[in-house]
Amino acid sequence: MALAPGLDPAAFALGGKVPLRALAPASIEELAAVVKACNEAGEAVVVFGGGTLQGIGFSPARYDIAISTARLDKVLEYEFRDLTISVECGRSVERLNATLAERGQFVPLDAPSPGLSSVGGLLASGWSGPRRATFGRPRDFVIGSTVVLADGTVAKAGGMVVKNVTGYDMSKLWCGSLGTLAVLARANFKTLPLPETTSVALAALPERTRRRAVEHVAALDVEPSVAIALHGFPEAGGRDGQEGRLFLMFEGSHTLVDRATRDLRSAIGAAGVPETTLLDGTAATSAFARLLDAYGARLGERSLTYRSCGLPGEALSRCDALAHAATRHELHAESLLDILGGDAYVRVSTKLTAEFAAAVERLDASLGTSSPTYTIFNAPEMLRDGLKMWGNEMTSPATQRDIKHRFDPKATFAPGRFAGRANCSEGKRA
Amino acid sequence: MSTLGTRLVAALGTDVALTQPEDLAVYAFDAYSEDRLPTAAVVPRDAREVGIAVRIARECGEPVVPRGAGTGLCGGAVPRNGGLVVSFARMNRLLELDARNKRARVQPGLINLELSKAIAAQGVFYAPDPASQKISTIGGNVGTNAGGPHCLSYGTTTNHILGLDYVDEAGNVHHTSLDDPGYDLTGVLVGSEGTLGIVTEIDVRLMTLPEAVRVGVAAFADVESASEAVSAIIGAGIVPTALEIMDKLIVDAVEAHFHAGFPLGSGAVLLVEIAGYPDDAESGERTIAQIARECGALSWRAAAGAAEREALWASRKGAAGSLGRIAPNYYIQDATVPRTRLPQALQRVEEIARAHKLPVGNVFHAGDGNLHPLLIFDRRERAQVDAVASAGKAILEACIALGGTISGEHGIGYEKRETLPLVFSPDDLAAMARLRDVFDPKRLFNPEKIFPSGAVCGEVRNPAQTQSQRQTLAAGGAWL
């Protein structure tokens, strides 16, 4: 079996653990054979795509073998007139969308670092980016999948049709399972036609304009495909006013985007925002790419990012509450708030790496056990296991643990990363 | 009275727990028309009562079958093994509308269309719109992951469910939300046809009502050329909100009944809806009309206003019902193929029907590749019943051969369970069984549904229509 000798295990280290070996199977059959062998030998496996979202969840409690999906990168089926595509999961998100772009199509996966991020890793991470409110989450575009289970079984679900209620929708289970149940080997997507044009609007927010600007943006007649209020996150581009800045993107026909940007100017103008910069064409798409990269950006070993999900109307308060708490613990807080989707990302950091651990541990402890739940990603590797990576509670934890146990009874896949390690509350007895 | 009945009455009272045969008769069947009387039924008022009923059923070793409006076409709500039917007739309220955050919290028994009607004034709507929406419930829609004409651009039920409450096999209530960390329990519960848990509350995603809606009708010489037009529209990068085809047999029946103004005399009509912003809808309509003409459309007519639009939709959604004029019975199939394979699939349907000497009508969600051939027969003629069973299976096999699958939106239920192995390998089915083991190790939630009789032990039976399936191929109120 050719298993790509020469992959350096050190490149796949997590939480201070370096795997014994790093393997890169070149076919789904090889992948199945490798997984089966590891499972039988009792070796713990972490599946690696591009590694861009490995910072979600706890680090694996045991870690012997890294399996890279890098060589599983083929397009398996693409009938563009069906608006469906099937790819191996090691293909990068960028290459998936490049293939689709040749036919004027795309899938809105919104991956940070899409050149590195693999399709399988993106799906397994449960990632959803800034376009989820308008287009849906990555999981909503998956119409079928093939996985390798811990015992080496290859199992498929769904198919290559856009409407399908044949059997359980197992793809939903694999998406967001963080590689703890199965290895995603193949994913089938429904695709969308690329919009005629894309326009990005950037606006610095002067003092006392943010809340009103956010309200006005939420009430726009033409829904932006992206509506983010940022404070900090310079990686995303643009210039902060006293209350940060807005990043909006409109996608559609020329007439629609013209109307949208006109409406936007008057709406946020009414909120006291004097200036809006408009970007079109490649300037707009590269600005969007910078924004996506900013989601995943970390500041060396002196930052981590909290994420809280919930009602869009409460996102601003959730975001500000967390930012204030961080400031109280002498952490610098930057925020990225999805006005339509309701997600709030708060990156907390210190100037000096040496100060970070103590400050963030105080903050994390202070967040207590009340809702909302903040989950953590991109924590420094050595800190992550001491923090509430999954927030305060995971719903129906017994069910979550049982799912893990049924699919991976020997805890071969990333043991301890996900369910079964967080503090949990059981279902209410009726 | 059965032990189950006695205990349910003691715990919930005779207002909630039904045990008399005359009270149970209505819970014996759905639109699949095979029937079996349950041992007892409950009509609970809240999740707590559902939990109590489930717990008692489990302690009695009796299966539990949830029931919405009973419009399912595949026997999903039929209590095949007796046991307990849980009806959601009383849990039918809109609990909370949050238009700002575009979501609503509803009870499972709420009728699909009632929700969109109740919230329209706030400028929002609930997108999944199965043709049965006038009477089918959102809980039932969740069970089958129902589709409808508008899922072409809006997606199916699963894309519009943000979270759920469900009662587990021990009778405990759980809440799931897409916002919560953990495995996506919401995603696996939707479409699980009541085999994993009993859903008691649903958080749905709402959408902003479109500013403009345009509907047009094109006439074609035959269904194949109408489907070519559908492929051309989609291939041109246009995804309208709906692309529906009806063939001559259906159009004639629909027009005789509704008089909505579909063109008579052509081989097929294509119904197109474009919703969105006014300029886009207008230019979309122009482009689509142009493509339709290039694909050989004999005519194109745009609906003049809301009344005309609604009349066209009402007759499309009532298509199956209007067949009552011409058919003693009909059997409706539900299968999906990749959209570009539609012309071949329709050709195969035609050949299969002809070989079985059965008239066939087609009314289907062309944009999604979702076929609904209606085989016309008389159930008093044994030979015809057998022919329908055999033709139905042949159609499924043909769709699978074209890269498609055996249900696009109706579900597998009891009807297609033995056909599932044509699509999935024993390993695929075993993975699904593992999930079921988590939620329902004793197989008390809607047993004999979805999975073939041998699937659990890995021994998958040769798929074939069973005797009872043949006997029950008859028309009910059918929905597509």
Write up this protein.
The complex is a heterodimer of chains A (430) and B (480). Chain A is of the alpha+beta class. Chain A has four domains: 9-68; 75-193, Uridine Diphospho-n-acetylenolpyruvylglucosamine Reductase, domain 3 (2-Layer Sandwich), CATH 3.30.465; 197-295, 2-Layer Sandwich (Alpha-Beta Plaits), CATH 3.30.70.2190; 303-386, Alpha-Beta Plaits. Chain A has eleven helices and 18 strands. In chain A, the strands form four sheets. Chain A has an eight-stranded antiparallel beta sheet, with helices on both faces. Chain A has a five-stranded antiparallel beta sheet with strand order 4-5-9-7-8. Chain A has a three-stranded parallel beta sheet with strand order 1-3-2, covered by helices on one side. In chain A, a hairpin with a 4-residue loop joins β4 (75-79) and β5 (84-88). In chain A, α6 packs antiparallel against α7. The model of chain A is unreliable at 422-430 (pLDDT under 50). With 480 residues, chain B is α+β, with helices and mostly antiparallel strands. Chain B is 34% helix and 19% strand. Chain B is built from 16 helices and 20 strands. Chain B has helices spanning 3-12, 21-24, 47-59, 112-119, 138-144, 151-154, 185-189, 223-235, 248-258, 278-294, 306-317, 319-322, 342-355, 382-401, 426-439, 467-471, and strands at 17-18, 40-42, 64-67, 84-87, 94-98, 103-106, 124-125, 161-167, 173-177, 198-205, 207-208, 212-220, 242-247, 268-276, 299-302, 329-332, 335-336, 360-364, 370-371, 373-377. In chain B, the strands form five sheets. In chain B, strands 15-12-14-13-18-20-16 form a seven-stranded antiparallel beta sheet, sandwiched between helices. Chain B has a five-stranded antiparallel beta sheet with strand order 5-6-10-8-9. In chain B, strands 1-2-4-3 form a four-stranded mixed beta sheet, covered by helices on one side. In chain B, a hairpin with a 4-residue loop joins β5 and β6. Chain B is globular. Chain B starts with a helix and ends in a 9-residue tail after the last helix. At the A-B interface, β8, α5, β10, α7 and α11 of A face α3, β9, α7, α8 and α10 of B.
